[in-house]
Amino acid sequence: MPIEKEALQAIWLTIKLATSTTVLLLLLATPLAWWLAWTRSRWRVPISALVTMPLVLPPSVLGFYLLVALGPDGPIGRLTQALGIGVLSFTFAGLLVGSIVYSLPFAVQPMQHAFEAMGRRPLEVAATLGASRMDAFFSVALPQARTGLLTAAILSFAHTVGEFGVVLMIGGNIPGQTRVVSTQIYGHVEAMEYASAHWLAGGMLLFSFVVLLALAGLRRNGSRVLP
To answer: Coiled-coil ranges per the record (predicted)?
Structure first.
């Protein structure tokens, strides 16, 4: 069957959202994962719990509180309005904020585990050779944790592609603006357009299978390079 215009818009918006979320998450989650891996601060446990909360919270609950926070009377909404940005709810920017929060543990945890598995020894060796902390981080830590970084990128992208409850609560289902593949499928099912729903859902199934294959390959290759 021919691809509908609305379906193409939803696919493009989903790819755009997942790509933007993944890039921003890697930038935000890498220093956070590094801090969680090595800090002895008393704040480590509560911050780790806060980062992990999206794994156990129902997406509708997370989406509701994000909607309140981003809305005109919420703290973030008041700030964005004062800055002249406007309200972020029911916009692509709002979807991006929600996706970053919702997928944060999928980026932080693989990198944190990779940093912890690396141990302090490589950094100590780099320090004895005169490398600064920043040099050691970029030239030693990141290359050694590459499997964790790749896993974080794949999981963040895939999780964003598959999210439904959060994006529906924050962005609604506005064609061309906030309608992603998951909400497009929901709309087709509501309208009893099962053929169109099957086409998009089948694509999601194939995508999920490819992601799992990629993760399995990363784990296998990562285990080969471990000492």
So the answer is: none
* Digit-coded pLDDT (tens) for 60-79: 999 999 999 999 999 999 99
Could you tell me if 64 and 170 are in contact, meaning their C-beta atoms sit under 8 angstroms apart? no
**Polymer length in residues for the chain:** 227
C-alpha–C-alpha distance, residues 129 and 191, integer Å: 66
Q: How far is CA 83 from CA 74, 77, 87, 212, 222, in A?
A: 14, 10, 10, 42, 45
pTM of the model: 0.88
Q: Identify the band that residue 2 occupies on the pLDDT scale cut at 50, 70 and 90.
A: very low
**CA–CA separation, 105 and 55 (whole Å):** 7
What are the residues whose beta carbons fall under 8 Å from the beta carbon of 174, sequence distance 6 or more? Answer: 90
Residue 177, both tokens: 């603006």
Asked if 59 and 137 count as a contact pair (C-beta separation under 8 A), the reply is no
List, as own/partner pairs, every contact residues 68-74 make where C-beta atoms lie below 8 angstroms and the sequence separation is at least 24, other chains included.
Answer: 70/94, 70/97, 70/98, 70/170
- Is the pLDDT at 118 greater than 90? The verdict is no
CB atoms within 10 A of CB 223: 9
| Whole-number average pLDDT of the chain | 88
CB 22 within 8 A of CB 75: no
